[in-house]
Design brief:
- It is built from 16 helices and 16 strands.
- With 464 residues, the chain is α/β, with parallel strands linked by helices.
- The protein has two domains: 197 residues, Rossmann fold; 253 residues, TIM Barrel, CATH 3.20.20.
- The strands form three sheets. It has an eight-stranded parallel beta barrel with strand order 9-10-11-12-13-14-15-16, surrounded by five helices. Strands 5-4-3-6-7-8 form a six-stranded mixed beta sheet, sandwiched between helices. Strands 1-2 form a two-stranded antiparallel sheet.
- α14 links the parallel β15 and β16.
- The two termini are 40 Å apart.
- The chain binds 5-iodo-2'-deoxyuridine-5'-monophosphate (5IU).
- The site of 5-iodo-2'-deoxyuridine-5'-monophosphate has 16 residues, from β16 and α15.
- InterPro entries: Aldolase_TIM, OMPdecase, OMPdecase_AS, OMPdeCOase_dom, OPRT, Or_phspho_trans_dom, PRTase-like, PRTase_dom.
- Its EC number is 2.4.2.10, 4.1.1.23.
- Keywords: Decarboxylase, Glycosyltransferase, Lyase, Multifunctional enzyme, Pyrimidine biosynthesis, Transferase.
């Protein structure tokens, strides 16, 4: 495999690391310039980089089904690892093809496959995150990335926030150490570079939302479960705000902490299909589902119209909707039929029980009927809004509103329990939390607290 110090010296000789004063794309003057693209012209060095990365991969003990290289420099590296060690490879295109299949991911995979990302350099982590987002949107599980070189500009932290562990062959401080040791650069240059790195720590890139026109073909139930597992979140934020611009802003702040965002489109004063598309794009980027809490309650024919027509055209953007089972199974039939017109998976949550005091849903026969209806239409009904565990299997997700850490209720009948109680005593999988987060001073921080407490209790109690 060769010594790591030798490899660093070779990289220095081929000018993969340059020292001086370089103007970066951002306008900053940098005392170091790193460009690993040159390695493709030096087959021995290229192979050596791949071998070292494979070593790290082996040592990480991560089990996986495939490897995905990030274009461009990491692609030849990933090819060598895959060919030498007989591992299946995937490629994520930079752009979807605009002819033929329009695929973004090339190569064979199955939903829930575990995939490792391979990258040459990590600075902020944004290219790894972008690749992970695309792979996750197709149902792959991404937990780890192997990089050759870490610039130590906070990429590790940024990736961790997106639930990706970083494994690297070399850190910039190690490279500087080897080069000083072998007399290639002075102590002073090394210190200069360290100072520059310290002063240029990156934050998770702010979202640059592009309209993404991707088609997701994974069944919604599976997608939901994958999102929960990957993000370690069973938190649904109930964004009961009356302004969609504000919800869009909020979704960027808390998007990485939640598995679902619930809205009431009929309370929005500024609803437009353009704005809801923006929210949809954020939900794709930050990997959460959109739930329209419409609480449909009419006959099949009417709900078909309410779901597809009017100002809101809910079926076009909501991954999930809430539905009262009161009218009988015809309501689910109507919605399911309408959903077939959409080229994306759709589903619903049946309201089995309510959290409000004196709810008329507190009736055993009614609840039994709801469960039977869910079982009959289990392709479309993926779970319940409930206040207790209604089935013994894990097929249906139990979503529970009425959650607050330091309040017991409001003036209008809401009754609260803590996240742990909601899971333990009320059988929740998903916690629906509204005002506890919305009314807090730091919504992002509070969302993170509910995410952590909620998921920890969920793991312990459901033993997942
Ligand atoms: N919600 C309930 N209870 C229910 C059902 C829905 O609270 O039984 I069905 C909704 C109402 C609100 C959110 O949109 O869940 C809870 O918000 P708070 O956490 O702010 O109470």
């Amino acid at each position: 495999m060769g010594d790591l110090a030798d490899l660093v010296l070779q990289l220095y000789d081929i000018e993969a690391f340059k020292f001086g004063s370089f103007k970066l794309k951002t306008g900053l003057q940098s005392p170091i310039y790193i460009d690993l693209r040159v390695i493709i012209s030096y087959p021995d060095i290229l192979r050596s980089v791949a071998v070292h990365m494979n070593e790290i991969l082996k040592r990480s003990n991560v089990s996986f089904d495939s490897i995905c290289g990030v274009p461009y420099t990491a692609l030849p590296i990933a090819s060598i690892i895959c060919a030498d060690y007989k591992r299946p490879m995937l490629i994520r295109r930079k752009e979807a093809k605009n002819y033929g299949t329009k695929k973004l991911i090339e190569g064979k995979f199955q939903i829930n496959d575990r995939c490792i990302i391979i990258e040459d350099i990590v600075t902020s982590g944004s290219s790894v995150i972008e690749t992970a987002d695309s792979l996750r949107a197709e149902g792959l599980q991404i937990t780890d990335a192997i990089v050759f070189f870490d610039r130590e500009q906070n990429g590790e932290n940024n990736l961790q926030k997106r639930n990706i562990r970083l494994h690297r062959v070399l850190k910039i401080s190690e490279v500087l150490g080897y080069l000083v040791q072998h007399g290639k650069i002075s102590e002073e240059i090394s210190e200069n570079v360290k100072e520059f790195i310290n002063q240029n720590q990156t934050q998770l890139p702010t979202l640059n939302i592009e309209i993404e026109n991707k088609t997701i073909s994974i069944p919604i139930r599976q997608r939901f479960q994958t999102i929960m597992k990957e993000k370690r979140s069973n938190l649904c934020l109930s964004a009961d705000l009356t302004n969609l611009d504000e919800i869009i802003k909020l979704s960027k702040q808390v998007g990485s902490n939640i598995c679902m965002l619930k809205i009431h489109s009929d309370i929005l004063t500024d609803f437009s299909m353009d704005k809801i598309q923006q929210l949809k794009d954020i939900s794709r980027k930050l990997n959460f589902l959109l739930l329209e809490d419409r609480k449909f309650a009419d006959i099949g024919n009417t709900v078909k119209l309410q779901y597809t027509k009017g100002l809101f055209r809910i079926v076009e953007w909501a991954d999930l909707v809430t539905v009262h089972a009161l009218p009988g199974e015809c309501i689910v039939q109507g919605l399911e039929q309408s959903a077939q017109s959409i080229n994306e998976p759709r589903g619903c949550l049946l309201i089995a029980q309510m959290s409000s005091k004196g709810a008329f849903t507190d009736n055993e026969d009614y609840v039994k009927g709801v469960v039977e209806c869910a079982k009959k239409y289990s392709d479309f009904v993926i779970g319940f809004i409930s206040q207790s565990r209604l089935t013994t299997t894990d097929e249906f997700l139990h979503c529970t509103p009425g959650v607050h850490l330091n309040n017991t209720g409001d003036q209008l009948g809401q009754q609260y329990v803590t996240p742990r109680q909601a899971i333990d005593e009320r059988g929740a999988d998903i916690l629906i939390v509204g005002r506890a987060i919305l009314d807090s001073i730091n919504r992002a921080k509070t969302a993170e607290e509910y995410q952590q407490q909620g998921y920890q209790a969920y793991e312990e109690i459901r033993k997942i």
